[in-house]
Amino acid sequence: MRIAVVGAGPSGLGCANELARNHDVILIDRLPVVGGESGWRETSVLQYASKAHELGILFELGSMAIRWDGVNLLIVGPLGTKEISADHLFFAGGVRPATSAEIGISGDRPAGVIPASVALHLLESGVQLWKNAIVIGDGQLTHKVISAITHYGGICTNIVADATETNTNNRQFTNAKKMKVHGTARVDKFECEVNGENLQFECDGIILAGPLIPNRNLEGALLEPSKNVTFVQDINGSTPESRYENGSSVARNWTKAQGGSK
Amino acid sequence: MALSHTSPVDVVIIGGGVLGCAIAERLSRTTAKVVLIEAESDVAEHASKGNAGVAVSYYGKPGSQQTDLINASNPLWEAITHRLNVPYRRIGGLMVALTDEESQTLEETVAEINACGVNAQLISRAAAINLEPLVTPKIISGINMPDEGIIDPIRLTAAYASLAATNGTQFRFNERVIAINHDENGSCITTNLGQIRTRFIVNAAGVQAGKISELAGGETLNMYPRKGQYIVLDRTFGQNLSKIIFSTHSAHTKGSNVVPTTHGSALLGPTALDLQNLDDKSTDTQTIEWILENAIKLAPSVADAAVIKTFAANRPAGDEAHRLRMDKNISNLFHVTDRSAGVSISPAAAEMILQLLKVAGLDVEDSKDAIDVLPKVAALRTSANPEELIKSDHLYGQVVCACEHVSAAEIKASLEGPVPATSIDGVRKRTGAGYGRCQGSLCMAGISFLTATSTGKGPDSVLQTSRGTVGS
Lengths: 262, 472
Known about the structure:
The complex is a heterodimer of chains A (262) and B (472). Chain A has helices at 10-19, 43-54, 100-103, 116-123, 140-151, 240-257; strands at residues 2-6, 24-29, 58-61, 64-68, 72-77, 80-85, 88-91, 95-97, 106-107, 113-115, 132-136, 155-159, 171-173, 176-182, 189-194, 197-202, 205-208, 212-214, 229-231. Chain A is of the alpha/beta class. In chain A, strand 1, helix 1 (10-19) and strand 2 form a beta-alpha-beta unit. In chain A, helix 1 (10-19) runs parallel beside helix 2 (43-54) and helix 1 runs parallel beside helix 6 (240-257). The longest helix of chain A has 18 residues, at 240-257. Chain B has 472 residues and is an alpha+beta fold. Chain B is built from 14 helices and 22 strands. Chain B has helices spanning 18-28, 65-73, 77-84, 100-115, 125-131, 153-166, 209-215, 235-238, 285-298, 342-359, 386-392, 408-416, 424-431, 444-455, and strands at residues 9-14, 34-37, 54-55, 88-89, 93-97, 121-124, 141-145, 149-151, 170-172, 177-183, 186-191, 194-203, 223-233, 244-247, 257-260, 266-269, 273-274, 307-318, 322-326, 333-338, 399-401, 406-407. In chain B, strands 1, 2, 9, 10, 11, 12, 19 and 20 form an eight-stranded mixed β-sheet that branches. In chain B, strands 13, 15, 16, 17 and 18 form a five-stranded antiparallel β-sheet that branches. Chain B has a four-stranded mixed β-sheet with strand order 6-7-5-14. Residues 1-5 of chain B have low confidence and may be disordered. The interface between A and B is large, with 53 and 52 residues.
């Protein structure tokens, strides 16, 4: 069979490398490099990618998968469009932090409420963006954001909706409900209820870091189930290695369900 | 920078909402010299940004000026939106009666709509379900309103502004009026940035129109914000919706509706709450839950749809829901405000303001040099031939917003346009980047770097909204 894998992070690489034992695999990513949010310099990612090359996997990097109709995939890149025909598609488009609406945050919509995925990219520029930030959620992005902000001396308060402990070594409040943002031009206050008590925090930034939600941005593969699509999006994977292993295992299970046939 | 005392302009428009920008667009196609000043850092803030995006065929009573302006504007939408490259579709609306009482109200409503000269018919339950299969099976009767349309109100406002700016209208942002004085030659407007001399003033300041009139020594306009809360649903629901589903109007409110957007998503709302505080644009959980419940009554599959965003916006309410006239005391001051139908009246309102200005002595004619068609910026997502688009500009092949498939070419155009975006929101308003289900989780970093570069800011000081920066 000819199989398209969308997403060349650890999950997609794990999936593609497993499938390449029995199938023709083409691996597509919107970024011009492999690794996804794990980054292309990660040692394990470099190993996975070199294995993929050895296995003869075709790469379409720097190309965004736009539309899947069950048999054909349309990708676009700076050099033009391409139709890729495939018998099956694995969507490994990664994960993102939940939005304000998904968390159920009400109140104002001022500047300074930022998804953690965005905050991390901005913090990489080395600028001290927030001195006193609220970090919502206990996803795998939480620790990264908190260490980036505390690294330059900023303070973080971690607000989590359930009772999970994350050992962030920071001010943490769990079981938070009724979250509310305050501020006109910029955010200046965060409010929530913890065990029936109303808490208010002055802050200059609110970073949305969890829970994690699978990205869905390929038309024709937005909803589960979609025709000839398997989703490979590990919201619990904490390391590139675990996500790679999860990708392999999803591919193995799929192959088994196909009867192991070519 | 401020214009000098010695170079007076013909008209100063105060307010860069849909009405102010529509007037600027119309006047820009004449020989008049025009300046538009806006307190925010962009056009289409406040009510012009936060509304349901409906170009209505009917809103109020027959014979009113507002109804005349809606009737004059409605047939023009295809031509105007083609000329200005704005998404618009005349998809029609369905007003829904869920009780016998509402069914009776619909009989009165359809009579009123027809008395306005607008096409609408009472239809049976079966016909209504046929018209919009997503409508509730509990519908008793409906009104088919074929001339209701959906429009991108922000793109419309920005397009009016872009055409005007291309024709030479000066747009001045972050500029607030402090004083207005009059003499035999006209008026002098003092702002936080300087002074402008002008022969005429058009007050299109929305909810601030009362304050502007007061500063100009004009009549008392009692204005206050009416807050509306909204829910945005994902396109996986919105794309299945073929009509605007309206609640039956009650004595107090036009009700909360289910509206497909030109982006493919769907909007639920608005609610209506009169306020004192201009800056209160907060959502609350109870109201959001009410909007959802109400929408589920109209279209049960809303219950399965993904909520991607909630927001609130304030419309310019007051003791008059609509006004377009010369001030009773000051003969060079014109007021134009509309609580709910600003988009829907904008083309005809702009024409009418021009005629009123001419009657008042503005001696201008249509300009031979002015353009009336905005150069088209293609969009990757809606392009019939993406291959050709990318060959024409490779930046079309670089998708920045993964959810809405907005390309780098579109973002570049929004940052370089005649009235360029100066904030992340400004890019979003013009291109739709960040409108999707991830709400910018994937693309906002890239857009903030592009916006920072374009506006000469760093990642901390780049504007996220009209007023607020990303960092503190």
